[in-house]
Amino acid sequence: MSRVLGSVRAKATLGATLVVAVALLAAGAAVLLSLRGNLLDQADTQAERSARNVAADLAAGTAYDRLDLDDDGPPVQVVDEDGRLVAASEGLDAVSGTGSAAVRPRPPSPSATPDGGGSDERGSRDDSDDSDDSGDSDGDSDDDRSGRAGSGGDDDSYATLEPGEIADEAGRSDGSATVDGERADYRFAAVQVEVPGKGRLTVWAGAALATEQGAVRTALTVMLVGFPLLLCVVGVVTWLVTRRALRPVEGIRRELAAITASADLARRVPVPDAHDEVARLARTTNETLTALETSVERQRRFVADASHELRSPIASLRTQLEVGEAHPELLDVPGAVEDTVRLQRLAADLLLLARLDAGERPADTPVDLGELALDQSAGRAGVTVSAADAVTVSGSRGQLARVLANLLDNAARHARAEITVTVRREGDVAVLAVADDGDGVPEDERERIFERFVRRDDARSRDDGGAGLGLAIARDVAARHGGTLTVRQAPAGGALFELRLPPRDRA
Fold first, then answer.
1. Second-level CATH architecture of 277-357
2. Among the CATH numbers 3.30.565.10, 1.10.3540.10, 1.20.1440.130, 3.40.1160.10, which is that of 365-501?
3. 500 CB-near residues (< 8 Å, 6+ apart)
């Protein structure tokens, strides 16, 4: 179980599901907020339209009792500038969130005149009514006179309204109303109107929020049901897609496990028929296996060739010692010494190759190639040195001396009479060249001669030729020093070996 949960497939599925969940939550919240905002805007518009219709009737001089305020329409309150309810919708039983909690307009005053002035409207009062109305159970007390504060108009609009004029701005509030015994939430709009003879009136009209609440609840229900299902679908699809995508990786793993168990480096992992990262991984793995197989095969050949090369001088030395033991007068001491020296050189070459293969880094000391060429050429017949001044490189003097010595030994075996050593600088490259006047190296063998235990002339005796390691050692040392060793035809027709190294910059 822990292996499954810790797999890449499980992590990818979990990650994708979490990302989609966060995205869905953010999108759902945005949708709900946008939906609620749009519906509230619609409710505000509807409530303000209703309030302005009543305000227009009041501005036209319509009496309170003739206003269209039946119980089929939205809940409406008309409050005067003293906060007293003067008109209300029929069937309004309770209200909150408006300028007055009263639901019943005040009856006409006994002193009202019949001329239709401001004193004959329902809800008007004179100074003698104050004491009688203070305990009115309809709630038209001083505590309810908040119409001016909650009317939605500011002091500037209150001061500048002309008779018959309706305020441009409308107030907004949330509340509730009970109409014919049914309570519901409403969005109220408050519009002020200046009525001749009646002063400043505030019309409160509401728009039911049942549609908004129902739509939000429906959307929320859909999200609560749909989001989990969508997350399940995302999780399942991601799991299946990831399994299909990682199937080639599992095939690569199984094949590598089989290669490790069988130690058969000739096998290769399957490469998917695609151009994605998995296919590139498979190709890179096969290239690594090829390089590893080549390295192991090269090591096997090296061990076999080294064993063969060591067997000859050891067998010769043993034979001479055995003959000398049985017949001291027949002991070939010079031959035994020669075989011992040859064996010693071969062991030194093998040791140096092993160190190079192990990645040993050369020393970082200055080496004058001209001086090195003069030292290594001293005592050699037919060697001419042409060295420029101040051609210095960084590296191991001993290893570079070994390279030059190997090149001179190789040239001595093939030259007819003359060997030329040249040291020069070509731009940013230090060049050490060794040329001979022999037969040269055929073009098709110019890379093969740098392989280990390879001799150019198989007909040569083992004593005349080397073990086939000199040039291989020279190229490996050159590569370790950041340079190259190549061969081409010399001007005299023989072989021209060129060692190119990065020069050491002088302070």
1. Orthogonal Bundle (1.10)
2. 3.30.565.10
3. 429, 430, 431, 478, 483, 484, 485, 486
Q: Measured between alpha carbons, how far is residue 30 from residues 20, 24, 209, 213, 219 in Å?
A: 15, 10, 20, 16, 12
Q: What is the pLDDT along the chain (507 residues), one digit of tens a residue?
A: 555 555 787 888 888 899 999 999 999 999 999 988 899 999 999 999 999 999 999 988 888 888 888 777 889 999 988 888 999 888 888 999 887 888 888 654 444 333 444 433 333 333 333 333 333 334 333 333 333 434 444 444 445 788 888 998 899 999 999 988 889 999 999 999 999 888 899 999 999 998 888 888 899 999 999 999 999 999 899 888 888 888 888 888 888 999 889 888 888 888 888 788 888 889 999 999 998 888 888 778 777 777 777 777 788 888 888 888 888 877 778 878 887 887 888 888 888 887 877 777 888 899 999 999 999 999 898 899 998 777 899 999 999 999 999 999 999 988 988 999 999 998 889 999 999 998 889 988 889 898 887 766 543 444 455 667 889 889 999 999 999 999 999 988 899 999 999 998 743
Global model pTM greater than 0.90: no
Q: Which of 455, 442, 503, 452 is nearest to 474 (CA)?
A: 452
